Amino acid sequence: MSHPAHAQQGHVREADVLEELPPVRKVNAAEVAARISADPRLVVLDDDPTGTQTVADVPVLTSWTVDDLRWGLRQDSAVFYVLTNTRSLSPEDAAARNREVVRALHAASAAEGIGYVLASRGDSTLRGHFPLETDVLAEELTELGAGAPDGVVLVPAYIEAGRLTVNSRHWMRTPDGLLPVGESEFARDATFGYRSSSLPEWVEEKTQGRVPADEVLRITLDDLRSGGPEHTARLLSSLHGARTAVVDAVCDDDLRVLALALAHAEGNGTRLLYRVGPSFVRARAGQAGRAPLTPAELRPLRGDAPHGLIVVGSHVALTTQQLGQLRERGGIVEFELDVSLLLDEERRDAHIAEIATAAAEALNSADAVISTSRTLVTGADADDSLSISRRVSAALVEAVRQVNATRRPAFVVAKGGITSSDTATHGLEIRRAWARGTLLPGIVSLWEPVDGPAAGIPYIVFAGNVGGVDALADAIDLLRSA
């Protein structure tokens, strides 16, 4: 069933989208783990930190010196993440950063004698620098002599958050049913907006016609479930000249069939580059979904202060609702950075210092929330809007750095993709960490930093666009119970 790129159809009952699908083909995560045990390491270049929220006990780097990458390759893990944070960068800077990481990784790989395969992790609601990032990675791999990719495999599904792909059409679950992602608020993003919900048409739209929709290889649930790994591997092996493939997924088993197929195709010499949402990484790394961390598992991890710090940078409606719910449950003191003051060079530094001092003091009696004023300030164009976002994020992060220098919080929660990346790298100066698991099922990742001023403080990465209205309050309750 094909849909014009901008056909409006609104919310659809989930049962109607999922009816008449072939039965799920069960694949155990252990089978994937065994199949890939001798394979090259999966290295995920994550365009913001929220991609770690489906995995557990996986290394994370926010820095990509050859030494850092060698550390990542030496860890006993089928996968590790490199936090590039490119979603917050201009196209030119994003391209340069991808090149830098791949060159360092190539050197680290040669030094350690361990091969690698690259996944570019983007947003499950299709925002980010595509096709730029995969284009740049393909160019670099070719130049470095690692071989030009035969195919670029696009798998945006994020199962727990309800981002599903059926018949090459991408959906998001909402309280009113499934909504084609091209009709969501995310499709109207000031920097990364789009119109298409059909992935082949989205690829054509994003490549500005360079890759026509009818040239995209579609791997459907029929292929994965009825055809199975061998059939799907044959489809993947047909890719040449960096041709794009788009893959359906409704559950982890679909992604594990794909993982077996990828291992088979790559084992026979097909070179692939991945552009994926969070769920793919868990399946491809041979991990099963893990239950959220328990208070007992959280107990050994904490800072010195009796209470935690919550940093809110995301402006999506859901974040504002979640913050309201946390407010209702109580136990917090709120501090607001005024965006108009942050954009005023003369008053900016004093304003940040004042908020940080007050928040550090508050940690003795309550959890401190630092947020930016909720009125979204946009610029004259997409680049200008991104520049304002970056200045506001930098101020938020400087406030966190000052709080942590005064009083190490019991925990730090960062709400929003760019916010959580900048808080990790600049606010807490984390270079190396372990993603230990989640606080809620499949969403909200907890990192244990292994170095820097935040070593040992639980750091919680909480995307702006996930969870129900109670999710933030529930996560804070769990942290308090520990």
3D structure, described in words:
The longest helix is centred in the C-terminal third of the chain and has 25 residues, at 382-406. With 482 residues, the chain is of the alpha/beta class. Helix content is 39%, strand content 19%. Helix 4 runs parallel beside helix 5 (132-143) and helix 11 crosses helix 16. The N and C termini lie far apart (50 Å). Strand 16 (432-440) and strand 17 (443-449) form a beta hairpin. The chain has a 15-stranded mixed β-sheet, sandwiched between helices. The model is unreliable at 1-6 (pLDDT under 50).
Structure described in brief:
The protein contains 16 helices and 18 strands.
Mean pLDDT over the residues? 94
What is the share of helical residues? 25-40%
Regions with pLDDT < 50 over 5+ consecutive residues? 1-6
Q: Which structural category fits the helices and strands?
A: alpha/beta
Largest sheet geometry = 15 strands, mixed
Q: How many strands in all?
A: 18
Number of helices: 16
End-to-end distance: 50 Å
Shape: globular
Strand order of the largest sheet: 9-10-5-11-4-1-3-2-16-17-18-15-12-14-13
Beta-strand content bin: 15-25%
Radius of gyration: 22 Å
Write the layout of secondary structure elements.
Layout lengths: L13 H5 L10 H8 L4 E6 L11 E4 L4 H9 L4 E5 L7 H22 L3 E6 L10 H12 L7 E5 L7 E4 L2 E6 L2 E4 L18 H8 L10 E3 L1 H17 L5 E5 L4 H16 L4 E5 L1 H7 L10 H4 L10 E4 L4 H13 L2 E6 L1 H4 L2 H18 L4 E6 L9 H25 L5 E4 L1 H11 L4 E9 L2 E7 L9 E4 L8 H11 L1
Parallel strand pairs: 1-3, 1-4, 2-3, 4-11, 5-10, 5-11, 9-10, 12-14, 12-15, 13-14, 15-18
Antiparallel strand pairs: 2-16, 6-7, 7-8, 16-17, 17-18
Helix pairs in contact: 2-8, 3-4, 4-5, 7-8, 8-9, 11-16, 13-14, 14-15
